[in-house]
């Protein structure tokens, strides 16, 4: 028996299933006298007794929530998003691939969303930056998708992979130099959160000093918070200024290559694709880095396999991508017509959410999750089908090279707290560690060459960027449309102005020797 499709009253549970009481009026409504008290499990349920995928109850243990939904509904479960908007969460591995690979049935074009056409989705909805239609390849299918995605892939393919690894290594050493003499560090706040943005700003053609604010905005945007729209606006303003500058001063960077691509992208299309590449690459890579480091530091079998040569860091990365994908879900797909999926009746215009983490642990394909899957790339971490992440190899290169540089530089790196003290923060799409405290033998910073004077944020730096207040006046975008140059940020030097990249840092000993010592615990 199938669950009726989402509608104004929300989908209902299968006949015979345990019926949960609805939470009634929103707990945020001061007039809701009958609302459950804070902390009550009833907050997890919305109209029709459906489970909410937002709020503290859903974010405390998302993987446990997915398994409860799987046990109750099977491969596809009815759920509620922010504002109690009904949707379908795809939990099965094969069902996820079915949705991802058949855009004729499940489109990326959010203009199919029935609730939006009915006026039930407010412009300032927390998920608006993700689901609102935008002129970019992730929101279209067919020929238009091929045109836009082709420009993105061509731009990404122009990067020299060895050059990217050199950039990652330099950036990693700059970050490590900030804490290596202390003998202690938080690898979330001082390493993984900044390394991907430090690299991506260089690849896109932005000054590194954009990084601190962009890190904050990127994380907030994906959390679906009340300030997500404001964070998205900040990212767009910064990128519009970048496009304006690159029109008059092109360089060997992704922004310049999109502008000059024969596909003829408009300025708005260039901005939107810079945004999706920046945000997606940052969040997924930052989570991948810290998840790899946590596994290395806490899983003895993992470390033994590395030390014994039974596993390489790339192998370990694929294991992490199976067990802890950097994106828990991908929002979204929209049914182009009435159809069936996983035994559920899907109506035209319904929203579907790809459950990437849940699909990776589908018992149908992984009956025993403890069995290693080293080197197996058939996971869902980067989705699949025509919209599979085009920059996944760059993300892998950043994570692999960054982790390698850290372990080689600090060979006796160890966890500074008990593993049980580690905590995570979750949202609809992401889950990441709040901190990863480590200890190590203090090291001297590497000798710096003059060309390595890059702007790297202090771990606690949350101050506005220089000239940030002037970014909101709209002049950057207007100037971009007129094909004139606009200063990116007052007082911030363009990293491309020097013309040549910095030289690699000198190491005190070959990296492979230090890595071998780390594996051996010496």
Number of strands: 12
- Spatially, the strands of the biggest sheet line up as 1-2-8-5-3
Report the major sheet.
5 strands, mixed
Percent helix range: 40-55%
Distance between the termini: 60 Å
Strand content: 5-15%
Shape category:
globular
Structural class: alpha+beta
Q: How many helices?
A: 19
Radius of gyration, whole Å: 23 Å
* Arithmetic mean pLDDT: 79
Q: Unreliable runs, pLDDT <50, ≥5 residues?
A: 1-36, 450-522
Descriptive overview:
The chain has helices at residues 56-60, 62-73, 93-101, 114-117, 128-131, 142-157, 161-177, 188-192, 195-204, 211-223, 228-248, 254-260, 267-298, 300-307, 313-323, 356-360, 392-409, 475-481, 511-519, and strands spanning 76-81, 85-90, 106-107, 184-186, 330-335, 339-341, 344-346, 351-354, 414-415, 424-426, 431-433, 437-439. Strand 10 (424-426) and strand 11 (431-433) form a beta hairpin. The chain starts with 55 loop residues before the first helix and ends with a helix. Helix 10 crosses helix 11 and helix 13 (267-298) packs across helix 17. The strands form 4 sheets. Strands 1-2-8-5-3 form a 5-stranded mixed beta sheet. With 522 residues, the protein is an alpha+beta fold. The radius of gyration is 23 Å and the shape is globular. It contains 19 helices and 12 strands.
